[in-house]
C-alpha cells in the first residue's frame, strides 16, 4: 500500500498543480467558462492532499530544507504572503456584511476631482499638478477626476491615487503639520 501511495503522490501533486495553474490563470483574467471556478476551488483540495502526502513521504528530505537559509527565506516569504492575503484591508469582497472600507475610499477618491483630492491631502491643486508633472504625468485641468487623469496618461487610477496620497505620507516623515 505504501509503495502505491509513494508512486502516486508526485503524479497526483503534479496533475493537481497543472489543473490549479490553468484554472487560476483563467480566473485571473476573469475567463470563467464551464467549470473553471468550481474546478479551481475543489481540485485545490486535491493539490493540497497530494503535496501533504508528498511531504510526509519525503519527510527526511523536507526537514533538510529547514537548515538551509535560502529555503527558509522562500518558506518564510510564502507564509508572509499567506498572512497578508488574509488581511481584510486588501480584499475586494464584503467583510461582516459591509463592503471593504479601503475599496470604498479608493473608489470615492479616484472618482473625485484633483481639486477635491488636494483638499484631502492638504495641498493646493497647483502643487499636486507640479509634483505629478515631475513624475511625467500631465494634468490638463484640475477639475478632471483622478480616473480621467490616469486614463489620459496611460496609468492605473489606483497607482495615480497612490502617488497623490504619498504626499500625505511625506508630510508625516518630515514632521510638518498638515493642519
Overall description:
The protein has 179 residues and is mainly α. The chain has two domains: 2-86, no CATH class; 103-173, no CATH class. The chain has nine helices and no strands. The protein has helices spanning 2-28, 36-57, 59-65, 69-86, 101-110, 114-121, 125-133, 146-152, 157-174. Helix 1 (2-28) packs antiparallel against helix 2 (36-57) and helix 8 crosses helix 9. The longest helix has 27 residues, at 2-28. The model is unreliable at 171-179 (pLDDT under 50).
Main sheet specs: none
The percentage helix is over 70%
Discrete helix count: 9
* CA-based gyration radius: 24 Å
Q: What is the overall shape?
A: elongated
**Low-pLDDT residue spans:** 171-179
- Quote the average pLDDT: 83
Sequence of secondary-structure elements: HHHHHHHHH
* Beta-strand share of residues: under 5%
* Number of structurally distinct domains: 2
Would you count the extended β strands for me? Answer: 0
The structure class reads mainly alpha
The N- and C-terminal alpha carbons lie at a distance of: 72 Å
